[in-house]
Structure formats: C-alpha cells, structure tokens
Specification:
The protein is α/β, with parallel strands linked by helices and about 900 residues long. A hairpin with a 2-residue loop joins strand 12 and strand 13. It is globular, with a radius of gyration of 30 Å. The strands form 8 sheets. The protein has an 8-stranded parallel beta sheet. A 5-stranded antiparallel beta sheet has the order 21-23-24-29-26. A 4-stranded antiparallel beta sheet has the order 22-25-28-27, with no helix packed on it. About 45% of the residues lie in helices and about 15% in strands. Among the domains are: about 10-95 and about 290-375, TIM Barrel (Alpha-Beta Barrel), CATH 3.20.20.80; about 105-280, Maltooligosyl trehalose synthase, domain 2, CATH 3.30.1590; about 410-550, no CATH class.
C-alpha cells in the first residue's frame, strides 16, 4: 500500500502517443527509482489530439486516446502490485469547447438558457447587445460577414441523428430544434417535393412544429427521431440545403437562421472586448464552469468519486484553484466526497493545489490541503544558490546592452495596462457592469458613473499585489481585508479625480461591508462581485507577470520563473533555515524544480544562475558577441529586429539549452526558433499572439538562422561554446546542489518526467518532448563511480545516480522525512559562506546534509574549501551517497566533506 504522504512523486504527461499501457510499462522503473506515487497529467476525456489533457470535454469518461477504461485498469493494477499510489491532475475550473466533442457545451449552444447545462458554464447571458442575448463565439478566422459570403459557414444535416448544425471547418454549432420547422418549410418549398411521400412527411413535421416554441427541450429528441426515420428525407434535405448556401444566393437566409440562435459567431479578434463567458485566462477554447453549483460539482466529479471508491486514486493535484469562485467551499465539498468514497483500508489521500504564492504569502489554510505544487520552493532553492554579489553587475550589463531604463515596477504596470486593454478586456467589462449596477442600487451612490467606476476599479486592479484574495459568501479574513485596504489606500493616493470617495464605496463592496449596510443594497450582487473579481485578479496577474513581464525583464532569466520575481534578492542561509524550520511543521506540499508550466528546464535554469558567479565574464562576452553578430539585425518599422532585449534574452536561453557545437542540428535550431517566436509574442511588444507582426518575426527567424549557421557565424559559435562550457561546469554543480536540496529538505520531492538526466528544455511545448526511458532504466543497473560520472557529465547519468541514492534514503527512513525536524547546523571557516548544512532528525534517527553553492569558475574548487560543520557529541556518520569516503567527525567537527561532489549526505547513529 502506498504511504498516505508521498515519499516522492513522478509526473507523467500522458497523450495519444503515450497512454496508460506505456505508463504501466514504466512502473518497474519508477519503483526501482524510488518514488512512491505516480502523478499523472489529466486523463479524463479531452479534445481529440490534445497534447496536455487540460481541455476536458467529458468528466464521466477516461480518455479513449490513452487506451480507455481497460488500459487504465492495467495501469492501476500494476501500480497496486508495486505498492505505488496514483495522483491525478484534476481540472475543476474549465472545459474544452468550440469543437464537436463537448456534449454539454453543444447542448448549451443548441438551447441557450433552456439547456439543462445552461448553468454549468459561467456565461453572462445578457451582456450581448441582442434581443435574446446569447453567448459570443469568437471562432472565425475572418470577420463574420466574410465567412458567410465566402461560404465558409455551412448548414448541414446529420441523417443518423435527425439534426441540423452550422459548421465552420471543424467547429459545429447546433441549430435550435425550434427552428427546424422553418428549415423544413424552406427545403420543401425549394424542392417542390410535396408530391413525394418523403416531402409530405417533412411538411407534416414542419406543420406540427410551426410554433416558434415547438418542440420543447423534452420533446426535441422525438422530433429528431421522426426526422431520422423518414425514408428518403436525407436526399431531399441534402439537395435543398443549397437554399442556405452562399454559392446559391442563400447568404441572407443562413444569416437569418443564425441570428435566431442562442449564440453569435464572430471573428476571433472580437474576444478581446466582447466575449461573455469566463475563460481560462485568455484562451477562448477553454470555458469556465460553475463548479460552485452543487449539481455541477457532482457532475464533474463522477469519475473521481468512482476511482476513489475503487481505491484506484490516492491523491489529487487541483489545477488553477485560484480560478474558482469560492476555493474554500470547493475544497470542503471535495474533502466530503473523498471521505464518503474512500475505502476504509486506505491509509490517506493527498491533495495539493496549483497556487502561486507571493513573497511572504502562505497557502490559504481554509482550503485544508496538504500544500501547493511547489513553485515557491523552486524559487527559494534558486535564490539560496544564487551569488548575490553578481546580481547588481548583471543588472548593469542588461541595461547597458539593451538601453532599458524602466524600473521593474514600471514594466509590470505597463504589462498590466496592456492586458487590461486587450486580453482580459471582456472580463473586465463584465465586472464594471456589475459594479455599476450595485452603485445604482441606492441614491447615495448613484452618481458613481460607469466611467468613473471603471477608472477606479482599473487602478485597484493595477495595484493589486497578489494573485487573489479568498473572500467567501460568509465574509472576509483579516489577512484579505488588510490586502484590500492597503491596495485601496495606494489607489487613493494615485487618484487624480474629483471623487476620491468612490474608493470608500469600492472598498465596502470588496470587503462585503456593504452587505450589512443600512441602505440595503442587493447582497447577492455584492457577494457575486466580490467573488468574481477574485477570479479575475488571478489570470490578470498571471498574464501580466508570467506571460508578459517575464519576457520583457531580462536581468537574469533564472529568476523569471513561475511563482518567482525577476527582481528577487538572494536568500541568506539563515533565512533559508528559517523557511525550512517552518516548512517542517507542514511538509505535505510538493517540492518542484520543473513542471509542465516552468519557463525552462531545471538544469537550464541552473546554468543561467551560474552567470551570477561570473558576471564580468558574461559582460565581456555579451559586448564581444554584440560587436560580432548584434549588427546583423534588420530594420522593421524603424527599429532593430530582433530588438536588443530579444537578443539579450536569446543569449541566455541559448546558454541554458546549449548542446555543444556538435549538438547544433536542425532539431535544436528549430527548438530555438519556436522558443524565440513564443517569447516575442508573450512579450507583446514587437509582436503578439493577437496581432502577429510577420515582418518582425521573419527578421527574428532569419537572425537565428544566421546566428547558428556554422559557416556564417563560426567566430561567434566558437566564442559562445567556450563561454557555455565554463557556465555548464558551474551549472552542473548548481544542479547537484539543487537536486540534493530538493530531496533532503522538508516537503515531497516531485520529479518531472525525464529530468533524471539533465533537463535543458525550454518553455512548453518543448518540455513535453518524448523521454528516452530505456537509457534511464539502463543507468539504474550501474554502481556509480562519482569521479568518472563527474568527469564525463554530459549525459546526465550523475544526476540520476544521485537521485536514486537520495530516494533510497527517503525510502529507508520514511518517518524521518515525513515528520522529522529540520535543524540548522553551524558552519565555520574561511569558506563557510559556500555551504548550507542541516540535519533531519526524528527520535533516534538522523541525517546530516551539506550542500555547496557559489562555485566560482566551476572547476573542483569545492574539494579544497576550508570549512567545519559543528556536530553533536557521540554521532557516527555513514556516507549515504558514497561520494565522501573516509569522512568522519573529529572533535565534534565535520571537516571538508566535499571530496568528490559538492554535496555530502550522512546517515547517523549514536547518542
């Protein structure tokens, strides 16, 4: 049986080419590696061909592309036999829509508010300026009128189902059956088919449903059945649908039919300002669901409840918890579901949340989960390993090279303004309308016009410092009240308008104080707004910070990571110890160093981090490269293409992914091209996803092609390779330290697929490339020779060997790592600042850990550092890694244990 608290998890990205049976075949390897839980990407039915699984279309079915139910059972049985648990990455916030495979969404499009699923999706039905409202569908590649006139929107008949739908390429839009009578009369008239039995039968059906309210929702299946059973009807219908085709003059006829539906087809660009359903961030194909509705909650958790009851699921990772209206309510219902369904012989159930924590922010205790998926610890590890002495020099080099003069705050606020004006303008418009209705609810606030409320709310959102608060229907916590009040105070200081009292009103709404106001405003509207704005600030921050600012601020890309801060300062060893002592009291969250969402691979990040050890070498090299190749830019719109900022970012990204001169092939160059285009579009300056600049992107690709051409850039490539080799040596030592910290510090270490070897991937989808598991399995069979592995470290075997040794220790002492204390150790000597040392202890068990940092030139200087670690009396050490032979305690001092690797891990026995 798998332990209740995982010893370590292993993340697998399932897809149509790597399904349940492929995962089952890996179970022996995962067991030998030493993990306790397989942590799987979403495996409920998603859109056909999905590469990630987050676009779920059916919560009741396991993904058939992964092998379906039978293959899942084989995986589950293999895990049970190996005593490994299974954790599912579950998506409660949204579903995949706009294709012909989400029956709930199709039903909503067909019936609008009459649909049984109308409340499943978070739709502002009355926002569209049409008589019957509806849902805006920004799916067209061209303006609506052009799509109609070009015949790209086509009315079709499904004879087997007796149904009509409009189609736009792969997109299906059902026609409301209450319009079938109209369609059938048009068809019969066009065919002059009343003399045929089929024609008369069609006319009879049309007559029976002549009323615009016929059939009802319940009667519609019978109508479709009758249609499908009319012999010969299909031929007549198919022949006469030409009445709705542009090629036959039917553009206006089709338009009138579409205008009577519960949706409005539109050009994809309209989403920026007109969309009226909540999305996952700005992705039109992912529609938010109202999981706060108990019926929706039950519907989307059918399979989860079943798998829990069958004992086939031991944990959940909750995706995008901040997107939910009321995470606390959701967590409460989820815990009730788990308790109700979990078999009595199960030892426990592990729940974590995907949650970005700001500086000093802690996971909301009201959620009752084990912890987060670990982005905060990824960044803590980087910040304790970074050499702070080099950061200011790196900042100067970046600014001197690119001409950047803006502060980080200016860059972030500029990104927020752009996101508000473009990507999330529709969602913001909904909030403004809601706030305006609340203000109109009493004569004392009616003078707060929509325009002034928009300006005040905009300023509040721009200044909001974290991803979200957690106001519930019952009220607001002291912590959240302080965040709201502090943001309101800052906004009031920035306000230049004549009506600063508008912030009194706004604060009273956000804190729910207005609910208890004697003026008797609409309490449901206030609660709805206060909770909806929380669903907005999270994607607002994510799109502004992670997906914009991270691609504009290039001081040191190793800090531009999910959950991180580009201007973060180093963490001292003492501060790190304090964080770990606190974490040891709540060690259930994951410790991640790479995920499917990280901006670059964990070892690519450690290479880039090495620049803080060699800032002068970096500056000299940058100036040399810019003289050599920086002049090869083109001019696009009067500006350099690529821009100085993009070139600076490209140098760092190349360093992180660099395969050596022999590894520069077309596959590598293509990876860099794809990354560069994505990074440029995310930065939203010279080009963007919503308005691609073909000329600039063409110049960027041409620059990369020349930069990595062996003949055209031979001098640059030799220089870059020499520099990258030096940084790689430091980066590998950083990676060894990072790996040891990850597995020895409090928390549950999480391994992202394939990162047992060096992880030099770039942002997704580059980090979802296939993994060579045969090479990794083969490595497990060899006893490590650390000197050889360190000398021949290109293949990454040294990382896997270290990982296996550390996991073996966790498996041998599970209680110590699950419940043990964290005890800082004092380090003395000339090189003490290079060392982080601590003990993990529980009762008579103990493990001593020493980890190096700040490796200078990346050679073997760590072997000659002079330092001593103070130890307790009477302890005997056992080398758990095998890289520190002959080391012992002398006069309660552990001296210079880095005989081979820059880390040392010792088991303890004695008093």
């Amino acid at each position: 049986m798998a332990p209740a608290l995982p010893l370590a998890t292993y993340r697998l990205q399932l897809n149509k080419d790597f399904g349940f049976d492929d995962a089952a075949a890996l179970v022996p390897y995962l067991k030998a590696l030493g993990i306790s839980h397989l942590y799987a990407s979403p495996f409920l039915k998603a859109r056909a061909g999905s590469t990630h699984g987050y676009d779920i279309v059916d919560h009741t079915t396991l993904n058939p592309e992964f092998g379906g139910e039978a293959a899942f059972i084989r995986l589950s049985d293999a895990l049970r036999e190996a005593e490994l648990g299974l954790i599912l990455d579950f998506v409660p916030n949204h579903m995949g829509v706009h294709h012909a495979d989400n029956n709930w969404w199709l039903d909503v499009l067909e019936w609008g508010r009459q649909s049984a699923y109308a409340n499943t999706f978070d739709i502002a039905w009355d926002l569209l300026p049409y008589r019957h409202g509806g849902v805006l569908l920004p799916v067209l590649g061209v303006p609506y009128g052009d799509a109609l006139q070009n015949g790209e929107i086509e009315l079709r008949y499904d004879a087997g189902k007796g149904s009509f739908s409009a189609w736009y390429y792969e997109h299906r839009f059902p026609i409301n059956p209450q319009r079938y009578g109209e369609i059938l009369r048009t068809i019969v008239a066009a065919a002059d088919a009343t003399e045929s039995a089929a024609g008369r039968a069609l006319l009879d059906i049309a007559t029976d449903h002549a009323s615009p309210r016929s059939p009802t929702y319940r009667e519609a299946p019978d109508l479709k059945r009758r249609l499908s059973e009319v012999a010969g009807a299909s031929d007549i219908i198919e022949r006469c649908l030409s009445a709705y085709r542009a090629s036959n003059g039917g553009t206006q006829t089709l338009h009138r039919l579409l205008e009577r539906q519960s949706y409005r087809l539109a050009h994809w660009r309209i989403a920026v300002s007109g969309i009226n359903y909540r999305r996952f961030f700005d992705i039109n194909d992912l529609a938010g669901i109202r999981v706060e509705d108990p019926r929706v909650f039950r519907a989307v958790h059918v399979t989860v409840a079943r798998l829990v009851a069958e004992g086939r699921l031991q944990g959940l990772r909750l995706d995008h918890i901040d997107g939910l209206r009321d995470p606390a309510q959701y967590a409460k219902r989820l815990h009730q579901l788990i308790r109700k369904n979990r078999p009595r012989d199960e030892s426990g159930f592990h729940v974590t949340i995907e949650k970005i924590l700001g500086e000093g922010e802690t996971s909301p205790g009201l959620l009752g989960v084990a912890g987060t998926t670990g982005y905060e610890w990824l960044n803590v590890i980087a910040r304790v390993l970074i050499n702070g002495d080099g950061l200011h020099a790196l900042d100067r080099t970046w600014r001197d090279t690119t001409g950047e003069t803006r502060t980080y705050g200016d860059i972030l606020e500029g990104a927020k303004n752009q996101v508000l004006d473009t990507l999330l303008a529709s969602e913001f418009n909904v909030l403004v309308q809601q706030l305006s209705r609340i203000a109109a609810g009493h004569y004392t606030t009616r003078d707060h016009t929509t325009d002034r409320l928009r300006a005040a709310l905009r300023l509040y959102v721009l200044l909001f410092p974290v991803y979200r608060t957690y106001v519930t229907g019952a009220g607001i916590s002291d912590r959240d009240r302080e965040i709201v009040s502090r943001t309101i105070a800052t906004a009031r200081e920035r306000w230049t308008g004549p009506d600063p009292d508008i912030f009194d009103f706004l604060e009273s709404v956000l804190t729910l104080d207005l609910v208890n106001d004697e003026r008797a405003y609409s309490a449901p509207r206030i609660r709805d707004f206060a909770q909806r704005i929380q669903q907005f600030t999270s994607p607002m921050m994510a799109k502004s910070l992670e997906d914009t600012t991270f691609y504009r601020h290039h001081r040191l890309l190793a800090l531009n990571e999910v959950g991180g801060d580009p201007m973060a300062e180093p963490i001292s060893v003492e501060a790190f110890h304090d964080l770990m002592i606190a974490r040891a009291a709540n060690p259930g969250g994951l410790t991640a160093t790479a995920t499917h969402d990280t901006k670059r691979g964990e070892d690519a990040r450690m290479r880039i981090l090495a620049l803080s050890d060699q800032p002068k070498d970096w500056a000299d090299s940058i100036y040399e490269w810019e003289r050599a190749v920086g002049q090869r830019t083109m001019r696009v719109g009067g500006l350099d293409a690529p821009s100085p900022g993009h070139r600076y970012m490209l140098y760092q990204s190349l360093l992180g992914a660099w395969p050596g001169l022999d590894g520069i092939d077309e596959t590598f160059i293509d990876r860099i091209r794809n990354y560069a285009i994505k990074a440029a579009r995310e930065g939203k300056a010279e080009t963007s996803w919503i308005n691609p600049n073909g000329a600039y992107e063409g110049a960027l690709i041409a620059y990369i092609n020349r930069l990595l051409d062996r003949d055209a850039s031979a001098t640059f490539l030799r220089s870059f390779d020499g520099f990258a080799s030096r940084m790689t040596r430091i980066g590998r030592l950083n990676s060894i330290s990072q790996t040891t910290l990850k597995f020895m510090m409090p928390g549950v270490p999480d391994i992202y697929q394939g990162t047992e070897f060096w992880d030099l991937s770039l942002v997704d989808p580059d980090n979802r490339r296939p993994v060579d598991y045969a090479a990794r399995e083969s490595m497990l069979k060899h006893e490590p020779d650390w000197s050889v592995l360190l000398r021949d470290a290109n293949d990454g075997r040294i990382k896997l060997a270290l990982m296996q040794r550390l996991l073996a220790l966790r498996n041998r002492l599970p209680e110590l790592f699950a419940q043990g204390a964290y005890v800082p150790l004092t380090v003395q000597g000339p090189d003490a600042d290079h060392v982080i040392a601590f003990r993990r202890t529980r009762h008579d068990q103990g493990v001593t850990v020493a980890i190096g940092r700040h490796f200078g030139n990346g050679d073997d200087a760590h072997r000659h550092w002079q330092f001593e670690i103070e130890m307790e009396n009477g302890r005997t050490l056992h080398d758990e890694v095998g890289a520190s032979p002959g080391i012992r305690i002398d006069n309660n001092r552990l001296k210079n244990p880095f005989t081979t690797l820059p880390v040392a891990v010792f088991g303890e026995t004695g008093a």
